[in-house]
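TASK: fixed-backbone design
INPUT:
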């Protein structure tokens, strides 16, 4: 294959290498690894003859970590040096693969080779990705490996691809594609067959409506389409030129400054043709406002990988959350053996990890995807001695990254901004006395103060099991001094806060407490959150680590809405959707009416605010493309329906569905119109879900995509669907038409 010729690393990967696969201190087995000729598949098996082999695709690898960067490899660090070790992290829920090569050179060869392959994949155009995808299917279906597919093999393949096609129609296309008239298809003939199969009549209709000669779009045809249909503004000439340059495959058409149907289809399938506005992908917001003016991506029980009673605690939980752009992680600290504090879910059977290992992981991964500050929310159940050890670890491991004093060394008057705090890690915990006093240097060695803010096993009134968590406990001055802008405090009332509270004080609420406050005093809550930070976390009843809907809390301006990142579903879809804008940096600026205290916005009565302007959103769901199979049952094919959900202020919460289409996950067509009135568009999130209709039981989930209404592009757009855990499932998509207009 061409990709290998120039590259020594890839050449040695094709030859293959024996490496140790490590699962624990005791499970270390040799496996033979090699790269297949397709430059996409890694194949491996044990050395024993006759044993089955395993494979994975390079496209499933999310990251490569060098050295002892996983729990498993840390546990054998004394046995194998870091320069021979590396970890492959997969998308979705697949477990890491921890490997030890025989030499540092061999490890480097695989690390560099894999990085190169991943980079090639990322640079691939949509067209090549599709060809690659078709090629992968071809290999799966070519049962007898003769490089050809007879009609029977093609029929089986269509089933695998979620296509229910009548035999007559399939046979007609098969004969047409079989240009060599051999009764079977070679790979390029199969690509032709596939393209006839995926003829996009829905897109052709649009193309012909705007083409003046039904053959091509001239540059001026394209400009009319961009201006009137896509609402790209008035000055669309440069955009039209750029799109022809970028997406038109035919050089002849390019010379004529025109776009063929193929180019038009490529454009509509690209980032510019997607529903998400590319101008909001990178950082576009003002990052110099006080911290309390931003929603902050936040995780709850970050150390847990599954449920809260028996689950694995793991440093991996921190790495995964930080790599998803999370900016506030939770560390639950308890006294451990040998004077070393440990992290786990207290009073349960979850496993335990060392506090210092958590701090190490945070130090290493805090700023890989975002340079904006990370907040360590510390739940402290330790004695004074172990608190001192915690403070030492924080200072020693984090060094200059740890924020140890106010920014200019003077008494502060307000919260600094994400911009001011770039590259800094802030500790949120109890503090002795207040920030002002720490400037006069008059502090006793250690005073008593309540140690824990969270009666996490449950709210006090919900559960009296853990009375001891209310008892007073001494705080160490060293740990207290690590707290600067985020002092954990108990909340008594909005009135009390308005008069007495300081800007650096942070109150925590369980979701049920927060709900009670926002229903009884929404405007007060919004006002409180324009001055200081608030953290909301799931109630102790959610022992399955399920999530609440974060939207309700964002409506009240709560910044630190802590979710179980390890649990897929609606809550995390909304979180991923909100934070997919602004460079995925984990900070999103709140709407101005939530930042200005005099605005008195109340999420319960959005129509009362100044500048109230409701909008109407119409979504025409036109068609679906290559929806993934849900049921593994051989002969089942999806009956897809699309549901559009609006999440926002209570008045805006709404859901509507299309009809379901029987037996077609490959190219279902709806042309169904859904219409919504939205009263607080600045806060609205749109979640688009595809389900497999089932008349007897709950519908199965097929895919979803969530984004802020403010990031939506109008006109004809593709929505590239995501799987349950938020990873992409190419080439599954929906084709829609979007309009957002002011309500007259």
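OUTPUT:
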């Amino acid at each position: 294959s061409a990709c290998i010729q120039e590259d020594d690393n890839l050449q040695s990967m094709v030859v293959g290498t024996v490496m140790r696969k490590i699962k624990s201190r005791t499970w270390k087995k040799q496996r033979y690894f090699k790269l297949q000729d397709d430059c996409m598949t890694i194949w491996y098996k044990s050395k024993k003859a006759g044993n089955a082999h395993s494979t994975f695709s390079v496209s499933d690898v999310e990251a490569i970590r060098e050295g002892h960067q996983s729990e498993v490899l840390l546990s054998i660090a004394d046995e194998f040096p870091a320069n021979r070790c590396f970890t492959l992290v997969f998308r979705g829920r697949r477990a890491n693969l921890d490997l030890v090569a025989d030499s540092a050179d061999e490890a480097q060869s695989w690390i560099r080779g894999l990085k190169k392959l991943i980079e090639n994949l990322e640079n691939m155009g949509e067209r090549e990705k599709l060809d690659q995808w078709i090629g992968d299917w071809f290999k799966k279906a070519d049962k007898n490996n003769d490089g050809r597919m007879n009609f029977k093999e093609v029929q089986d393949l269509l089933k695998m691809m979620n296509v229910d096609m009548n035999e007559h129609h399939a046979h007609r296309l098969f004969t047409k594609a079989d240009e060599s008239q051999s009764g079977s298809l070679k790979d390029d003939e199969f690509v032709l067959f596939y393209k006839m199969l995926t003829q996009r009549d829905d897109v052709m209709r649009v193309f012909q409506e705007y083409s003046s000669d039904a053959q091509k779009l001239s540059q001026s045809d394209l400009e009319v389409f961009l201006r009137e249909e896509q609402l790209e503004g008035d000055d669309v000439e440069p955009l039209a030129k750029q799109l022809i340059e970028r997406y038109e495959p035919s050089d002849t058409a390019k010379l004529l400054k025109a776009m063929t149907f193929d180019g038009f289809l490529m454009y509509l399938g690209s980032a510019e043709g997607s529903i998400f506005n590319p101008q909001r992908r990178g950082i576009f917001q003002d990052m110099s406002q006080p911290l309390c003016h931003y929603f902050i991506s936040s995780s709850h029980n970050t150390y847990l990988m599954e449920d809260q009673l028996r689950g694995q605690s793991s440093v991996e939980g921190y790495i995964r959350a930080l790599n998803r752009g999370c900016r506030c992680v939770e560390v639950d600290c308890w006294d451990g053996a040998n004077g070393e504090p440990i992290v786990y879910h207290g009073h349960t059977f979850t496993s335990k990890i060392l506090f210092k290992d958590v701090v190490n992981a945070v130090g290493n991964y805090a700023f890989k995807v975002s340079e904006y500050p990370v907040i360590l929310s510390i739940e402290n159940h330790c004695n004074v001695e172990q608190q001192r050890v915690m403070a030492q670890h924080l200072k020693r491991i984090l060094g200059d990254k740890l924020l140890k004093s106010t920014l200019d060394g003077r008494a502060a008057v307000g919260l600094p901004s994400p911009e001011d705090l770039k590259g800094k890690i802030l500790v949120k915990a109890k503090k002795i006395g207040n920030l002002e006093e720490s400037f006069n240097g008059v502090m006793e060695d250690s005073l008593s103060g309540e140690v824990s803010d969270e009666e996490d096993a449950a709210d006090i009134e919900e559960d009296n099991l853990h009375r001891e968590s209310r008892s007073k406990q001494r705080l160490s001055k060293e740990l207290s001094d690590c707290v600067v802008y985020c002092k954990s405090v108990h909340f008594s009332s909005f009135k009390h806060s308005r008069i007495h509270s300081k800007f650096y004080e942070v109150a925590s609420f369980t979701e049920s407490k927060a709900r009670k406050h926002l229903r009884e005093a929404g405007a007060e809550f919004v006002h409180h959150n324009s001055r200081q930070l608030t953290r909301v976390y799931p109630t102790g009843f959610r022992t399955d680590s399920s999530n609440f809907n974060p939207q309700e809390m964002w409506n009240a301006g709560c910044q630190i809405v802590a979710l179980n990142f390890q649990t897929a579903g609606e809550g995390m879809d909304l979180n991923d959707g909100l934070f997919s804008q602004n460079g995925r940096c984990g900070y999103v600026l709140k709407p101005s009416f939530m930042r200005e205290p005099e605005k008195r916005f109340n999420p319960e009565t959005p129509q009362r605010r100044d500048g109230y302007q409701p909008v109407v959103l119409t979504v025409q769901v036109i068609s679906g493309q290559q929806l993934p199979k849900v049921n593994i049952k051989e002969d089942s094919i999806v009956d897809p329906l699309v549901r559009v959900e609006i999440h926002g202020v209570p008045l805006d919460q709404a859901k509507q569905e299309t009809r379901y289409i029987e037996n077609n996950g490959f190219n279902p067509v709806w042309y169904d119109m859904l219409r919504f009135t939205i009263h607080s568009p600045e806060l609205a999130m749109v979640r688009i879900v595809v389900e497999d209709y089932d008349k007897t039981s709950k519908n199965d989930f097929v895919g979803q995509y969530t984004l802020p209404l403010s990031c939506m592009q109008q006109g004809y757009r593709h929505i590239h669907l995501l799987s349950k855990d938020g990873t992409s499932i190419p080439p599954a998509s929906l084709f829609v038409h979007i309009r957002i207009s002011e309500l007259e």
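COMMENT: The chain has a mean pLDDT of 88.
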